[in-house]
Amino acid sequence: MRKTTPANIKLTLYGKPIELELSAPAEKVTPVAILPALHRINNTFVETAVEVFVADGATISCQAGCGACCRQVVPLAEFEAYQIAGLVEQIPEPKRSAIKQRFADGCAKLDEIDWLGQLERMLAEGTTHEAVQTHALRYFHSGVACPFLEAESCSIHPVRPLACREYLVTSPAEHCRNPTPEHVKHIELKFQVSKIVRKLWRTNHIKDLDSVPMIYALKWVKRHPNQFPKKRGQDWLREFFNYLANP
Ligand code: SF4
Questions:
Q1: How does pLDDT run across 101-122, given as a tens digit for each residue?
Q2: Residue 52 to residues 58, 187, 188: CA-CA distances in angstroms?
Q3: How far, in Å, CA of 146 to CA of 126, rounded?
Q4: What confidence category does residue 1 fall into, taking pLDDT thresholds of 50, 70 and 90?
């Protein structure tokens, strides 16, 4: 069993005192191994934001069994792509093969419209944020569901990506079936763990894109072996919280 080091963090979020009791691997690891701690941090940040927004009168439209947003592109931090690929390998057969097939079918469908190639060219040319958002809508309209979506529910809910945890909608749920920036309103999080770690931790594998679209994760991991440095879990967490204090 892996030895862990406790890390107790106190901070103030939206004016509320927060205490986080975390544990991180004592040995030197890549950031993939601190994902459980990042999930806990993310959950706490999101839950705190929801309490504050709901107290201010907002209503969260997201409910179990609504997987409308699971047809949007999911931006993974580079190291999350390794977590997702590892997770798929642990799924027993025949489900594992079925999920791998969904990844492959999704990529094939998006390749028909050269979705990823176009995105890479747009980012290399310094396209506007609005143009990238419009391109993201092409992904949605291609109808590629997340390979982990089953009966409109997330089949990997406890270990789902950071970005999925942060997507909470306050506009009516039916707007998510035809999402546009004007019609879909989200909870604006003070700290988005997914964005922070994408900025903080990446290797030379990642160039113009700052993330790996989840549907490409299995292909991407095959082409790009994990080259992250290894550090003690507490050192990765220290870097994270130092960034939070001085972004
Ligand atoms: S991982 Fe789960 S929550 Fe995220 S897009 Fe896929 S099904 Fe939806």
A1: 999 999 999 999 999 999 999 9
A2: 9, 10, 11
A3: 28
A4: confident
| From 63, 70, 72, mutation site for ligand 1 pocket: most ligand atoms within 8 A of C-beta | 70
49 lines ligand 1 (CB under 6 A): no
Sequence spans of domains, the chain: 4-245
Q: Which of 89, 107, 194, 198 is nearest to 147 (CA)?
A: 107
Pocket flag, ligand 1, residue 167 (CB < 6 Å): no
Task: Name the one residue in this structure whose structure tokens are 């700290």.
Answer: 191
Whole-number Å distance, alpha carbon 191 to ligand 1 midpoint, is: 21
- Ligand 1 binding pocket includes 85 (Cβ within 6 Å): no
Substitution site in 62, 99, 149, 155 for ligand 1 pocket (most atoms within 8 Å of beta carbon): 149
Protein residue closest via CA to atom 5 of ligand 1 = 70
SS3 label, residue 141: helix
User: Which tens digits make up the pLDDT trace of 171-221?
Assistant: 888 888 888 878 888 888 989 999 999 999 999 998 878 899 999 999 999
The residues pairing with 28 across neighbouring beta strands, listed in sequence order, are 232
